[in-house]
Structure formats: structure tokens, C-alpha cells
Amino acid sequence: MSLIENIFIAxxxxxxxxxxxxxxxxxxxxxxxxxxxxxxxxxxxxxxxxGPKDMKNLPLLRDHLVQQVWLLLRxxxxxxxxxxxxxxxxxxxxxxxxxxxxxxxxxxxxFPVYLNDPGxxxxxxxxxxxxxxxxxxxxxxxxxxxxxxxxxxxxxxxTFANRFGIEQKTLxxxxxxxxxxxxxxxxEDNIVSEADKIxxxxxxxxxxxxxxxxxxPHPRENTNWRNIFPDIPVIPQLAPAELLGLLxxxxxxxxxxxxxxxxxxxxxEKIDFYSKDFAKLKMMENGRFDGNKPxxxxxxxxxxxTLKEKNNFNWLRLPDDKFYTE
Length: 326
Hints:
This protein is of the alpha/beta class. The protein folds into 2 domains: 6-150, Rossmann fold (3-Layer(aba) Sandwich); 166-323, Sialyltransferase, C-terminal GT-B Rossman nucleotide-binding domain (Rossmann fold), CATH 3.40.50. The chain is built from 11 helices and 14 strands. The chain has helices at residues 13-22, 58-73, 89-95, 106-115, 145-150, 154-163, 168-176, 194-205, 225-228, 241-247, 303-306; strands at residues 6-10, 30-34, 46-48, 80-82, 98-100, 124-126, 140-142, 179-182, 213-216, 253-256, 271-273, 288-289, 294-295, 314-315. The strands form 4 sheets. Strands 3-2-1-4-5 form a 5-stranded parallel sheet. Strand 12 and strand 13 form a beta hairpin. The radius of gyration is 20 Å and the shape is globular. It starts with 5 loop residues before the first strand and ends in an 11-residue tail after the last strand.
């Protein structure tokens, strides 16, 4: 194992994608503490972290993780990057210089708090998207995905794609299809039932030619889309959608329910958002605990309002009103 000079902690494939893209030179000297959503990504110096089935065991698991980290660091305090909200992050926020990395819409609410706490958070990293943080701050850096990608040579880009399990056959598939459907963990996040979630995407798919569609599942999803839509190809789950946009820059269209990843993939007029009436969607009891990351209910985010600065997305309504309340 190489000498550890940095720590990365997260259960977000997106945060790990941004870290690897922004800091490629740090990869081999970083200790990756990663949850189930990104523990299969090919990086060196990796320790998978999972949440306890019984929360009474959390202190024991946390202490064991901390002991492992201290042994590997040999008592040194090094920079720590990643998600602030994993159930293990509090120790790292309070012990190491911490650099939060964006996790989608989460940063709209949380990053202003982090920027006002220089005692714990040194610098924040996010991606600029329409209606996002809407602020400039000397301790906030907006990562330009395209610019970072262009700094990598062809070999480095290929290695980057391999880390996320993207093979040439996946790229060839995207070359032939016109619509990338980016799904969301609607049932896993207790927004709707699994049956209603499947119906949501069945309704979306009905708006296109089936032969044109490729499905890109969300990393945290449990739904087996291959069984549900056997005639539609499904590409690697852990691949960030933005990475697919970098590898296949001439994608014709992205369709999604409310994934902000689409904002960094294509021009707005080529993105179909089906979340215009998301606030009216029939909700289950919200709030979840996915193994190592407690999250605020997704229903508290109004995507169309968040993206208020850009009105040229295709805001679409599902044809079946059964999904909505009045």
C-alpha cells in the first residue's frame, strides 16, 4: 500500500467520480472509505464501509474503522474529502481538515452551512448547474467536468472508464441508441412503492420508441430493470451518467424523472425532465437510512424551482394521472 496522503469518505458514486476527476494525481495516495454504492469501483487503498443492521452496534463499528485508519495513517492528520453526511463522517470532520464534495441537490442546502464553518470545512467542491448554489466564495470551487476530462490523455480516460466498469460494448450500445433513460431510486427512497416506481418508468418509456432506449440505473437502486424491460439494454449501474456523456458526447437525448446529472450531459433542449409535477406525486412516508447515509426526504426538493434560471428544459408530465394527488 502506498503512503496515504489523503482520505476520501462517501457512499456516493457521484462524489467519488468528482474526486477522481478533479484530483487524478491523488488517486494512488488516497485511502478510500466507501459505502455499498461505490465499493465496487476499482481504486487502490479501499476499505468498504457499511452501516450496522442494529444501530446499537454503530459505536463499535465506528471505533473499528477509526482504528484501521489511524494504523494506516501512522497517526498523521491528512486532508479528508467526500460526503459530510455519512454516519461515520462526524469523526473525520472533527479530526481532519475536511473538504466536502457535492452530492447533487444536497449541496444547495448544505454547502452554504459548510462555507460558514471554516473551523471544520476548508474548501467545498461542487458542480455548477442552473439554479444551484448561486454564489461565489473563495472557499467554493465549481468543478468543470468537461475541462477536467480534457486534461486527461487517452490512456488516462480509458483507465477512468474502466474504474467504473464501462466497457467498449457499453459505448458501442450508446452509439447506436438515441435515448438514455436515467432512473432514480424512487422506491428505495420511500417516495413511491416499487410497483408504482415501475409504472412511472413504464409510462416514461411509452413516450419513446423502445428500440431507441438504453436504461442507466441509479447506483442505489435494487430494481432489476433487465427482468422488467427485457427488450431494453441496461448499462453498468455504478457508472455516473455524466461519465457516459463524456465518453459518448453525441448522445441525442436524456430522459429522467429528476436526476440533476442530466444537466451536465447535454444542452437543455435535449433533456426531458418528467418532474414538473413532482411536488404532487403521491408520497409514501419519507425518510430513509440506506446503510451509511441518512438523507432528508427527496420530496423536500422541488427540482423545477431549483432549476429556475433555465426554462428551456423539456418539462413533461406523465400521461397517467394516477401518480398524482390533487
